Input
Amino acid sequence: MEKIKFNLNGKDVSIEVDPSSRLIDVLRLNYGLTGTKEGCGEGSCGACVVLMDGRSVNSCLLPMANVINHKIVTIEEFSKSKAYECIKEAFSSLGGSQCGFCTPGMIIASYALLKKNPHPSEEEIREHLSGNLCRCTGYEAIVSAVILASKKGEGLW
Output
């Protein structure tokens, strides 16, 4: 066990944990942040995506030793932002979410893309979201939602 210090959703935190523990487990079990989902546990589905220093990362692959002194933002905190509202509205209006299991990871990954490139092409969206799987909705609605968010969210990224 080691004391791991990092910033979680805007607050400096410290936790005594095995440094090889996965971030997703610590978020869900120690902090009660259950918006981050575990789908595959192998970094292939994107349900566990969080922001680390503004980049999207798979929390199921991230050992706690790698989050020391980094900023982690989960869907719980991100959902308080105007950027979230814009993306959520686009997903909702275009049917970009059905069961909702993949939605938190999909929204965070979409934000990370828009932050890096506020006006991505359809090809860039598909490439960036290729690590996020959705079994219900289909990707056309999701890609369309990201395009709509990029247009409506001018200045949010």
